[in-house]
């Protein structure tokens, strides 16, 4: 996993609209990159919904939100349409970004081990440096926690 103080790993993948999004697109902007396991699942829906509800507050403070999961562009498009998501969801189908950030790994659920995304969030300053990492996110209330941590930077 990347560490606080590290630069954001470089990436270039498609968003829900099929547009190529690169890490360099966010240069000079504060942003949160949140990783979640799968569109339309309960925890992921809660997290996306809360970021959506708070999105205008983030924008007012000049903060971008970026969601990342291994789902494809089509799944993200349907998820964005259903949830009213206005920020980019990146289709990390090849796990390029998840591996670069160190959030793709072995998980356990109900006695079963499998590979998947470990729900995590990375806060990034205008210089492209990670200043805070949430390695084990609980979806409910997370958006407000992220916003407050950005506001505490001032």
Automatic annotation (TrEMBL):
Q: Which PROSITE patterns does the protein's record reference?
A: THIOREDOXIN_2
SUPFAM superfamilies per the UniProt record, alphabetical: Thioredoxin-like
- Read off the Gene3D superfamilies from this record: Glutaredoxin (3.40.30.10)
Keyword field contains Oxidoreductase: yes
Q: Which family does it belong to?
A: Belongs to the peroxiredoxin family. BCP/PrxQ subfamily.
Specify the domain of life of the species encoding this protein: Archaea
Q: What is its EC number?
A: 1.11.1.24
Positions of the catalytic residues? 44
Q: Which UniProt keywords apply?
A: Antioxidant, Disulfide bond, Oxidoreductase, Peroxidase, Redox-active center
Name of the protein in question: thioredoxin-dependent peroxiredoxin
GO BP annotations of the record are: cell redox homeostasis; cellular response to oxidative stress
What is the annotated quaternary arrangement, including any partners?
A: Monomer.
Q: Which residues form the Thioredoxin domain?
A: 2-152
Catalytic activity of the protein: a hydroperoxide + [thioredoxin]-dithiol = an alcohol + [thioredoxin]-disulfide + H2O
Q: Give the species.
A: Nitrosopumilus cobalaminigenes
TM stretches of this protein:
none
Pfam families, from UniProt? Answer: AhpC-TSA (PF00578)
Q: Which GO terms describe its cellular component?
A: cytoplasm
Q: Name one GO molecular function term.
A: thioredoxin peroxidase activity
